[in-house]
Amino acid sequence: MRNLLCFFGLILLAVLLHQFLPWYAIVIAGLLFGAFAPLSSAGEAFAYGLLAGAIVWGGYSGILNYQNESILATRIGNMFGGLSAWSMVIITALLGGIYGGLGSLVGFWGRQLFGQGHTELEDFIQGIPKAELHLHIEGSFEPELMFEIAKRNNITLDYDSIESLKKAYKFNNLQEFLDIYYTGAQVLIHEQDFFDLTWAYLTKVHSQNVVHVEVFFDPQTHTDRSVAFDVVINGIHKALEKAKAELGISYKLIMSYLRHLSEEAAFETLESSLPFKDWIDGVGLDSSEMGNPPSKFAKVFKASASHGYKLVAHAGEEGPAEYIWEALDLLKVVRIDHGNRCLDDEALVQRIVEQKIPLTLCPLSNVELKVIQKMEEHPVAEMLEKGILATIHSDDPAYFGGYMNENYYETAKALNLTEDQLMQLAINAFEASWLSPEEKGKHIAQVKDYFHSSKYSQKQVV
Ligand SMILES: [Zn+2]
User: Fold this and answer.
1) Which of 19, 127, 136, 410 is deepest in the core (most CB within 10 A)?
2) CA-to-CA distance for 30 and 130, rounded, in angstroms?
3) Cα(396) to centroid of ligand 1, in Å?
4) How far is the centre of ligand 1, averaged over its atoms, from the C-alpha of 429 (Å)?
5) Which residue numbers are catalytic?
């Protein structure tokens, strides 16, 4: 259907161009068609081009001949010793068809030549079984869903359209992002809203072959607006359970304390969470890093551990390596979220390697928040080289331009990651997860199977 629409577009374009470029019009139109129409084979490209060329050139010649005007057909006919104009109309149509067909074929091959590597890499990444360990559910709030929920809750957003909201997604640092992030989260009021938000994320990552997720949620972003803790967690939990049953995605849930707020506020959140202890696997620490070191939350992390929660913290994203030391020594976390800045400190790298402390990296987030200037500077390859248990995740995918596949793809493309490095990243994510050793083993075996059986055999993927 889309091909047919493109085909009629091709004819229209050829007719329009014909006014200015009689000879080359059909070739140019064919080239554009071949390059952009969703064609599946060279034969298809040629056939469409041929047909369109024949219609346009044959049609033109026929009409003009019918009007008894001196036309190309008669001129060429004369060159061939006076062949009748009508038989030349047929030959002209054939000639136009060949021009159109060849133009379309060259366009199609050009697209294959320039686009092939990317498409093949994207397909390959799609097939990798993946685990996501660094994802803020509020950061998966797509503008379309935000507007839909705002409408049903009678909330007016500061932006008049989805487009104007998307335009605001250009940040210079973590704080500028957080300002929009908290504005968006304000439309979440009812349990159904939290369910819809979580379900949208889970169906999206299911389509990207993500089989295990460890999801952050920020209770204080909601309880500070008088939305009750149970409303938030009920909606999220229901969606996670539904995804487990219907999509086969296993999950863990991590409650994050907002570090720009006080430790007392975190203690209140810990207290509110206790009736739902069985649904929550761990606690984390996120929001504005600079000026809010992990040491500020040492007591509440100790108390959280005493209730059986596992511990993680964001550290070393914008903040210095010192914050990573604090997260390890004072908060006693088992995993560092981001941790980019560890590379500033050789002794810290040694500690992270020796103790196999995972770093959950988020490449697209790093570029968007100017933690790095461009993807080519991303430290993940260097970290793998040093033996760090580095993993790749999406952080706040609705705001940073991509979910798991896009993060893998952009990183692989920019850093020329090898197949071995990609496999290591996929294995590391399961290794760093909170799944049981048996579950980890099962997933890692599937990752290895995928890489070993895949037709994708180049050492260098780009
Ligand atoms: Zn994060």
Assistant:
1) 136
2) 41
3) 7
4) 16
5) 317
